[in-house]
């Protein structure tokens, strides 16, 4: 039977103060009185509290382990991010431990809860697409564990974040379609209210607005991120309808490839009749026929910078939170050629 670990929640409950106050006291923050801090330290000793993470002021140790939470490892984007993380971690004497959520908020929550009994110096996290509650991450931060988000971030939590420029990337993708002569542009996107999904949707809408084109709600479909989702979305856009699009902006390349497959099954010429553009620059976008126009994401750089930021938080408890946004690159291929 596993031993129950004393946490800062136990200290807070015993003293009838907030968890945040206990966390700040343990980290010797300036906004906690000397008296309160001493009470917290005394109670920590009385309860035999042993912090799991080296970020508090009580224990100065390092496991040299960094946790990385990602939805999947089987696609190009995340495997490239991991490569960037690994390079920085190893060059600084740290190991990385991967945790896969399968894009499930329930699995994500279970992983994070179990991490309280693990030995980590910090955590890099890409949240699940359907997650709406990030309290479990906030609890880890309050407990003294440095956390940095990348790609899909918890926008409500104040900590460092590293993202690609989703808004301007989407704007450039849609403007490219307009420049190619397409006028009825659909958007097959991800789940609603996900931070980067909303930014790409906003870029799509604003690009249409700039060129005085309507953003028809019937041409916007929210679903998952897979190739199958892309096929289903495009089939839905075309089946039994007269008001069909002449171009499709996909939230990622997997959905863009699904769009191409669906159009080919319906004997619609990709590019000439209906343009398709994605977002990622997955290597398969150069293999599919026709090749897929896309916006290249700086996945490797995102991994490197996220890990560098985390190491700064690990080494300096009061290191200020930073939000870094990296630009993408428009790559034009056959799927948006009308020739």
UniProtKB/TrEMBL annotation:
Fetch the InterPro entries from UniProt.
Answer: HTH_LacI (IPR000843), LacI/GalR-like_sensor (IPR046335), Lambda_DNA-bd_dom_sf (IPR010982), Peripla_BP_I (IPR028082)
Gene3D superfamilies hit by this protein = 3.40.50.2300, lambda repressor-like DNA-binding domains (1.10.260.40)
Natural source organism = Dyadobacter frigoris
| Origin: domain of life | Bacteria
In its UniProt record, a GO molecular function of this protein is: transcription cis-regulatory region binding
Q: Which CDD domains match?
A: HTH_LacI (cd01392), PBP1_LacI_sugar_binding-like (cd06267)
Q: Which SUPFAM superfamilies match?
A: lambda repressor-like DNA-binding domains, Periplasmic binding protein-like I
Q: Any idea which UniProt keywords this protein has?
A: DNA-binding, Transcription, Transcription regulation
In this chain the HTH lacI-type domain maps to 6-60
According to UniProt, the name of this protein is: LacI family transcriptional regulator
What Pfam families has UniProt attached to this entry? LacI (PF00356), Peripla_BP_3 (PF13377)
């Amino acid at each position: 039977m596993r031993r129950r670990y004393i946490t800062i929640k136990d200290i807070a409950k015993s003293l009838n103060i907030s968890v945040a106050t206990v966390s700040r006291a343990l980290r010797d923050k300036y906004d906690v009185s000397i008296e309160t801090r001493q009470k917290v330290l005394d109670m920590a000793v009385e309860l035999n509290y042993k912090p799991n993470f080296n970020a508090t002021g009580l224990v100065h140790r390092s496991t040299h382990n960094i946790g990385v939470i990602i939805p999947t490892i089987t696609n190009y984007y995340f495997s490239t991010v991991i490569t960037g993380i690994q390079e920085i971690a190893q060059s600084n004497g740290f190991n990385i431990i991967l945790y896969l959520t399968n894009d499930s908020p329930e699995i994500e929550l279970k992983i994070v809860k179990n991490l309280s009994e693990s030995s980590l110096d910090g955590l890099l996290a890409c949240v699940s697409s359907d997650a709406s509650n990030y309290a479990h991450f906030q609890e880890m931060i309050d407990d003294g564990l440095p956390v940095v988000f990348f790609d899909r971030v918890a926008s409500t939590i104040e900590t460092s974040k590293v993202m690609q420029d989703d808004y301007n990337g989407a704007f450039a993708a849609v403007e490219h379609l307009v420049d190619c002569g397409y006028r009825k542009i659909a958007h097959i996107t991800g789940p609603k209210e996900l931070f980067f999904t909303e930014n790409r949707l906003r870029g799509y809408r604003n690009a249409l607005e700039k060129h005085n084109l309507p953003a028809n709600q019937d041409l916007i479909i929210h679903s998952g991120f897979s190739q199958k989702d892309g096929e289903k979305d495009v089939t839905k856009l075309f089946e039994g309808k007269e008001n069909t699009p002449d171009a499709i902006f996909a939230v990622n390349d997997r959905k863009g490839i699904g769009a191409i497959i669906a159009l080919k099954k319906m004997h619609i010429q990709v590019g000439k009749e209906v343009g398709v553009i994605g977002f990622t620059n997955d290597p398969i976008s150069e293999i599919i026929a026709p090749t897929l126009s896309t916006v290249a994401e700086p996945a490797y750089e995102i991994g490197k910078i996220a890990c560098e930021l985390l190491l700064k938080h690990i080494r300096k408890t009061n290191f200020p939170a930073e939000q870094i946004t990296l630009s993408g690159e428009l790559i034009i291929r056959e799927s948006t050629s009308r020739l």
